[in-house]
Amino acid sequence: MKLGFGKKLASLFNKSLQYDDFFEDLEDLLIEGDLGASIAMEVSDDLKQFCRTHRVSSERDLLLEMKRMLSPWVLAREITIDNPPVVCLVLGVNGVGKTTSIAKIAVRYKEQGYQVVLGAADTFRAAAIDQLDLHAQRTGCRIVKQKPGSDPGAVVYDTVESAISRKDDLILVDTAGRMHTKANLVKELQKIHKIIEGRLPGAHCLNLLVIDATTGQNGFQQAEMFHEAIGIDGLILTKYDSASKGGTVVQIGKRLGIPVTFVGVGESYGDIRVFNPDEFLDTLLGLS
Q1: Which of 87-101, 103-117, 165-179 has the highest mean pLDDT?
Q2: What number of other Cβ atoms are within 10 A of residue 155's Cβ?
Q3: CATH number of the domain that 180 lies in?
Q4: How confident is the model at residue 210 (pLDDT cuts 50, 70, 90)?
Q5: 234 occurs within a structural domain
Q6: What is the pLDDT of residue 1?
Q7: Residue 67 is part of a domain; what is its CATH number?
Q8: How many whole angstroms separate alpha carbon 98 and alpha carbon 131?
Q9: Which domain holds residue 224?
């Protein structure tokens, strides 16, 4: 079984914290864990100074100091239904679990008593519409859809109109997983935002990006691309467990300032959790 980051970190403590070899190995491990080279160097150097200044020799004391250092970079955002309807545009490349994540979020809010509608605006792939339709049937959610190849903006318009007429609380819109160019992505999403603003002036509209928590540096690159293109308000992490390369969350938080909203922890509709930074760091560092 592949060791998670926390277990790999624990394996370093057969070396004295006063030796440079320990901190060189720590820096390598942080890079391997996808914190990025600059962050890994910063953390390693600061921890070395901390250990020597405070004469730290305890594994737990070092881990607690590392947690304190990383905490400002691990960001969370809760999605609340304060002024309905709240609109969430769910983005992400194909294959990361975008449509399944939409279904899980829908079930979570339905169980809290909110009315949820799904918009099938990923019209470039017939399979995406069919998949969202199947989730809608299984979860008892309404869905607004059109034929494959339809204008995504028209689907969003119809979804918003439907939500207004039925007084829905949450609108979850599935968007295309891939565009031919970044310019096309920007143009399409700007059009969708304009449609939403036109029908719901001042609406709470969030861009949520789904990334696979196990993809490491590739996940950061996806977040960077989407954030530069249209601005990301929150992340949804799929395939999230204690062995995942959690350093990506730290890097995205520090370098891009994007918080995490939800984490998918399994296959069933109930397997989604609100992101908890404290629990995340405890798990990542092996403190829990």
Answers
A1: 103-117
A2: 25
A3: 3.40.50.300
A4: very high
A5: yes
A6: 32
A7: 1.20.120
A8: 11
A9: 86-285
Which pLDDT value is given to residue 10?
75
The CA–CA distances, whole Å, from 180 to 16, 121, 185, 186 equal: 52, 16, 8, 11
Residues 97, 269: contact at Cβ < 8 Å?
no
pLDDT at 230 over 90: no
Strands 234-238, 142-144: pairing kind: unpaired
Whether residues 17 and 143 share a domain: the answer is no
Residue 79 lies in a domain: no
Question: Within this chain, do residues 210 and 281 fall inside the same structural domain, yes or no?
Answer: yes
Is the predicted pLDDT of residue 4 greater than 60, yes or no?
yes
Q: How far is residue 238's CA from residue 152's CA, in Å, rounded to a whole number?
A: 25
> Is 183 a member of any domain?
yes
pLDDT digit string, tens, across residues 106-116:
999 999 999 99
Count of the separate structural domains present in the chain:
2
3-state secondary structure of 244: coil
Residues 8-27 have a mean pLDDT of 75
Are residues 99 and 24 part of one domain? no
Q: Note the Cα 179 to chain centre separation in Å.
A: 20
178's tokens: 């891939």
Residue 78 counted as domain residue: no
User: Which residues, at least 6 apart from 83, have a Cβ–Cβ distance to it below 8 Å?
Assistant: 204
Minimal CA–CA distance to 85: which of 47, 49, 114, 119? 114
Please list, in sequence order, all residues whose beta carbon lies within 8 angstroms of the beta carbon of residue 189, skipping any fewer than 6 positions away: 89, 91, 175, 207, 229, 230
Are 59 and 175 in a shared domain?
no
Average pLDDT, stretch 58-85?
92
